[in-house]
Design a protein that fits this description.
heterodimer; A: mainly alpha; B: alpha/beta; Rossmann fold; 6-stranded mixed sheet; 3-stranded antiparallel sheet; elongated; disordered N terminus; disordered C terminus; nucleotide-binding (chain B); transport (chain B); P-loop_NTPase (chain B); ATP binding (chain B)
Chain lengths: 286, 321
């Protein structure tokens, strides 16, 4: 007869060498687990946290102080004009740069090799990156806007239309940055090479895209080059949020071009996704 | 060391060679840049068995195992692991296979417990974290960050992650490299526990004593193919049975290799009726010598990795176990 120690039959429904196994969790469940993990790892990396939150504020401080007495073509104060560029560049840094460099390091350290042997769906892994980027970006924007409004007297927009524009520019920009960061990290090279390449590219891109200068005063060829890449459109979208409506007349097109902005950013999301699907690798080739 | 316990009942004991093997490899070929690394490998690992792939560095052990794990492509050959081709098998198959690789990372900024709790979420039926910590002997390090673990503790964490999903087959790629002798002994007990639970284990190592201690069968890999497969104490066959008789004669040492040393000794003793045969010694090749002869026709000591020479078996008493 059975005793207290003997295993109950319900605990062992299918004894034998190949017991029925529950299916592994879905890509969505793993994406959720990874978002939590990525956020926790981010918070435990002081350099990352400092970079994401302090860098935009320091840039705003420098530009607002250096150009404190100058006016932009639209008449808005410099701090207000540059808030747009710094917001956009902050999104690019927490998405494109941090993701691209982070994945190259994870691949080199063998973290991705483990995920591969665990059968992690690539989509779940990407979802974790995107989740971490979105949460971080929202927090980063909140800190930046709070500092701009309190320390630099930048008047923030009041109308819901402006905030709606802000929301979709953040969302599309951060998504494009994440997808392109994954794509760039897949192109090969050591994490050092990827990191240096991304950093150099990001610095040049910021100059071309009107983050550090008034965009309409840049040489036409710079404007043309930057028009092909996402950052210029993110900065322009942010200008439409933070500058007075009249400033649109100073833009190269004479208006904010919201439709083109959304299309270009969406196109880069798709291009990045195609590169990821074709080029993403869990480990560096032998 | 606590043995691993499973809730799913699986038969322990001798390998079940009647059923389909856990691993079946025929004519496996892999080249890197035109240079063959694995060349015509044939291999069967039975269910419930602990099989050790033994070979010097560069023999193709890791490449072969990575192909079986489904993380490297092969150039030719047939591979079946748990009934499926690893190159095309899906997530359900991966959940049945555990991997303890040489170089994998796991979020260094996490604690041991956080790491196990996180990776539990990738499996259909994960072992409980507390149970895993006990099984690998890490409960006191549960709150420590992964990047502050000792080398041996880190390997244990790797093992815990490898068996977390209750795998039917576990790959251990040079699991004790860099461990101190105490940690190695503890690790061996852990692997024995897995095997007693009915888990099939495929181990690569270049430590002869490790293969001898853990494996039901040992395959010696050299030049990308298996040169011998046998239980550890039968490895080498005829090589093992050949003894070398040496003695001093006319100021020099004489050596004779023979399968019948007793007959030679009788003659020697007859030739020295007065007493001792000067410098007399009878030696049989230990595992190390057998291994060195197997992995290369003319082994150059410089090309043999140092650790392989560590467990010596030079004397007649040097037999395994």
């Amino acid at each position: 007869m059975t005793t207290a120690q003997s295993p109950s039959p319900t605990q062992h429904p299918t004894p034998g060498p190949t017991p029925a196994r529950p299916a592994p969790p879905s890509a969505a469940a793993i994406g959720l687990a990874r978002t939590g993990l990525e956020l926790r790892l981010f918070l435990r990396d002081p350099a990352q946290v400092l970079f994401s939150f302090a860098y935009p504020v320091v840039m705003l401080l420098i530009f607002a102080s250096v150009f404190a007495d100058e006016e932009t073509p639209s008449g808005a104060p410099f701090a207000q004009y540059f808030l747009a560029g710094i917001a956009a560049t902050g999104i690019m840094l927490t998405s494109f740069q941090a993701v691209g460099m982070g994945i190259a390091e994870e691949r080199e350290r063998g973290d991705l090799a483990r995920l591969q042997t665990l059968g992690t769906p690539a989509l779940g892994y990407f979802a974790g990156k995107a989740g971490q980027v979105l949460v971080t970006t929202v927090a980063q924007m909140a800190v930046l806007l709070l500092v701009a409004a309190t320390a630099f007297d930048v008047s923030l927009p009041t109308g819901p239309a402006h905030w709606a524009t802000f929301a979709w520019v953040v969302l599309l920009g951060a998504t494009a940055g994440t997808v392109l960061g994954i794509a760039v990290s897949s192109l090969g090279g050591s994490s050092r090479a990827v990191g240096n390449g991304i950093t150099a590219f990001a610095v040049v891109l910021q100059f071309f895209s009107g983050v550090f200068f008034v965009y309409s005063e840049l040489p036409p060829w710079m404007q043309q080059v930057s028009s092909l890449l996402p950052l210029k459109w993110m900065v322009q979208g942010m200008r439409s949020v933070f500058l007075p409506d009249g400033a649109a007349a100073v833009e190269p097109a004479g208006n904010w071009e919201h439709g083109t902005t959304a299309l270009v950013l969406a196109a880069w999301v798709i291009i990045g996704a195609v590169i990821c699907a074709r080029a993403f690798r869990w480990r560096r080739p032998a | 060391m606590t043995a691993m316990t499973t809730t799913a009942a699986r038969p322990a004991g001798p390998p079940d060679s009647g059923s389909e093997p856990a691993v079946r490899v025929r004519g496996l070929l892999k080249r890197y840049g035109g240079r063959p690394v694995v060349e015509g490998l044939d291999l069967d690992v039975h269910r419930g068995e602990c099989f050790a792939l033994l070979g010097p560095n560069g023999a193709g052990k890791t490449t072969a195992v990575e192909i079986l794990e489904g993380v490297r492509r092969r150039d030719a050959g047939e591979v079946t692991v748990l009934g499926q081709d690893p190159a095309t098998a899906g997530r359900a198959w991966r959940d049945r296979v555990g991997v303890v690789a040489q170089t994998t990372g796991a979020g260094n900024a996490l604690t041991v417990r956080e790491t196990l709790d996180h990776y539990a979420r990738y499996h259909g039926d994960p072992r409980r974290t507390a149970e895993l910590l006990d099984a690998v002997g890490l409960p006191e390090a549960a709150g420590r960050r992964v990047d502050r673990l000792s080398g041996g503790q880190r390997r244990r964490l790797e093992v815990a992650l490898g068996v977390q999903g209750r795998p039917e087959l576990v790959f251990l790629d040079e699991p004790t490299t860099g461990m101190d002798p105490v940690a190695r002994r503890q690790f061996w007990a852990l692997v024995e526990g897995m095997r007693e639970d009915g888990t099939t284990v495929l181990l690569t190592t270049h430590y002869l004593d490790e293969a001898a201690h853990l494996a039901d069968r040992v395959g010696v890999l050299a030049g990308g193919r298996l040169v011998e497969v046998a239980p550890p104490d039968e490895l080498g066959g005829d090589l093992r049975r050949t003894a070398t008789v040496s003695w001093t004669e006319a100021g020099g040492t004489r050596e004779v290799a023979t399968a019948e040393p007793s007959a030679l000794l009788r003659d020697l003793l007859a030739a020295h009726p007065a007493g001792e045969v000067p410098g007399l010694a009878v030696t049989r090749p230990g595992l190390e010598e057998v291994y060195l002869r197997l992995v290369g026709p003319d082994p150059d000591p410089a090309s043999v990795p140092g650790p392989a020479c560590e467990p010596t078996g030079r004397t007649a008493e040097g037999a395994l176990r």
